[in-house]
User: Fold this.
Amino acid sequence: AISEIEVLPYYLYRNKPFSKISGVQQVNSEGYRNGSKEFGKKEKGKIRIIAIGGSTTFGWLIKDYQQTWPSQLEEILNKKFNGKVEVINAGLPGGMSSESLVAFIMKDKFLEPDLVIFHNGGNDLAPLLYDDYYPDYRYHRAVLGSDKLRPGEKKIITKSSFVKLLYAFWFKDFTPSSVRSGPE
Assistant:
């Protein structure tokens, strides 16, 4: 799926506007995974829902934005409510709760949603595994493009072909770094 990102101040990164798969636009001009559909002032009588979260919300590995759960939710609700619902997919691959919430405060809330669905997968778990965990992830996120590995990762990667395969697949074309940058 899409792994293109755009670095931004305050909330690390967003999905690169106008990203495509097989020539089909998956991400709009604001980084939302809703194809070419743009969102401005909310239409009177419409119910606007914003889905925020990580790769499970974005639909990482799903090639068609219409197959993501936010798009499927919109389709189901529109059948029930006669086309009066729009669901904005503000998912961010690799994004943690902190990044999703900051993006919501800095940008998404201005779309005036009636409902916010927050769904984050496992991205928040990795920082909890370290003794020097801080709620602001100060040692977990590195500068974008960093090639530092977490303690023990190099050993695991060099010893296991399965882990090598996972890493190769996981980081294929992916720029944001989820590696630690704190004290060694």
Summary: The beta strands are 5-7, 13-15, 20-21, 24-25, 47-53, 85-91, 115-119. DSSP finds six helices and seven strands in the chain. The longest helix spans residues 69-80.
